[in-house]
């Protein structure tokens, strides 16, 4: 009897593609023409799969892995709550990990790739994972759903509307009367940051205001301090700023206080994402709340659909971001 490798050679595809067709796997992406070519070769050679082995392979462990960058980041709270709630409703356990542990040869990666120990992986990263690790993940039959990685051409993904979030934050400042608004934080190679910056640019252009180049200073509190330094050294000081994430916005508030810049008297600040810290900092931070709990629920629903071979609803979720007005914004004083 012909082997999978022989069928792959004749069909001019990989053995993993043949395995996906033989096992009825729906989460492996391939064109209809490629699938038809594989099926034609299978029929030609008379390949008959081992039903007992297939049944064993299809047994599910009832466990999914959730891997994010920086587990300590409070913005993940709502996302994880949504994931846990949806997983519990299906009787699934959740293994939680940090992308810092996902190195080639690491025990955590070995467990993720181990035969049958994990049914699916939810992964949120900002493009900082080693390419070899991503290649290993994509080569395995275990479904991988990316969180907040819009339009990734190689993977299944679900995301909130980050472009809308950036646009809403900017429009809020423009409607308050600000004309010179800047964007700071995030990384220009991050799809999430790029979408939020595109939202900023869209809003500025629609208001016939000149968008400025983004100051992509990274993530976390320090990124906010660096962002404040960038706008101070830009020649003209703005009256409003959109910050890529809430933690960086907290850092920017601290830097403004250190330099005697009054918020919101001299500078209005809006942070994208909402977390408890927004109510703790002074002044309390105006934010764009993203529907992260809904994203977590949708991600688990899509994992279930992939495992069951039913239609998926991938892409940007319908739930909209929401402006949460606090004390860090006001009409410009000049």
Automatic annotation (TrEMBL):
SMART domains in the record: HTH_LACI
Gene Ontology molecular-function annotations: DNA binding
Lineage: superkingdom: Bacteria
SUPFAM superfamilies assigned to the protein according to its UniProt record, in alphabetical order: lambda repressor-like DNA-binding domains, Periplasmic binding protein-like I
PROSITE patterns membership: HTH_LACI_2
UniProt domain HTH lacI-type: residue ranges: 2-58
InterPro entries attached to this UniProt entry: HTH_LacI, LacI/GalR-like_sensor, Lambda_DNA-bd_dom_sf, Peripla_BP_I
Membrane-spanning residues: none
Keyword terms of this UniProt record: DNA-binding, Transcription, Transcription regulation
PANTHER family xref list: LACI-RELATED TRANSCRIPTIONAL REPRESSOR, LACTOSE OPERON REPRESSOR
Name under which the protein is recorded: LacI family DNA-binding transcriptional regulator
């Amino acid at each position: 009897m012909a082997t999978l490798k022989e069928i792959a050679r004749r069909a001019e595809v990989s053995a993993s593609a043949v395995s996906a067709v033989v096992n009825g796997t729906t989460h492996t992406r391939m064109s209809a023409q490629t699938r038809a070519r594989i099926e034609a070769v299978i029929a030609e050679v008379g390949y008959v799969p081992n039903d007992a082995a297939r049944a064993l392979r299809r047994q599910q462990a009832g466990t999914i892995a959730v891997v994010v960058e920086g587990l300590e980041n409070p913005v993940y709270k709502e996302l994880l709550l949504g994931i846990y709630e949806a997983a519990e409703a299906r009787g699934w356990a959740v293994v939680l990990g940090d992308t810092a542990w996902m190195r080639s040869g690491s025990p955590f990666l070995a467990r993720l790739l181990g035969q049958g120990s994990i049914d699916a992986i939810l992964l949120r990263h900002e493009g900082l994972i080693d390419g070899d690790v991503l290649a290993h993940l994509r080569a395995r039959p275990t479904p991988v759903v990316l969180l907040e990685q819009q339009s990734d051409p190689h993977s299944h993904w679900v995301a909130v509307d980050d472009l809308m979030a950036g646009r809403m934050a900017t429009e809020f400042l423009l409607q308050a009367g600000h004309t010179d608004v800047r964007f700071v934080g995030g990384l220009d190679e991050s799809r999430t940051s790029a979408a939020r910056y595109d939202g900023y640019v869209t809003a500025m252009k629609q208001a016939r205001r000149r968008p400025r180049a983004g100051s992509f200073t990274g993530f976390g509190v320090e990124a906010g301090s660096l962002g404040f330094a960038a706008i101070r050294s830009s020649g003209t000081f703005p009256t409003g700023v959109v910050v890529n994430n809430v933690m960086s916005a907290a850092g920017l508030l601290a830097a403004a206080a250190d330099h005697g810049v009054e918020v919101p008297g001299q500078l209005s600040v809006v942070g994208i994402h909402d977390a408890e810290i927004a109510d703790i900092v002074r002044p309390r931070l105006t934010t764009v709340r993203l529907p992260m709990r809904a994203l977590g629920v949708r991600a688990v629903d899509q994992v279930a659909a992939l495992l069951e071979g039913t239609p998926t609803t991938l892409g940007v979720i319908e739930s909209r971001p929401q402006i949460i007005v606090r004390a860090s914004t006001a009409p410009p004083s000049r």
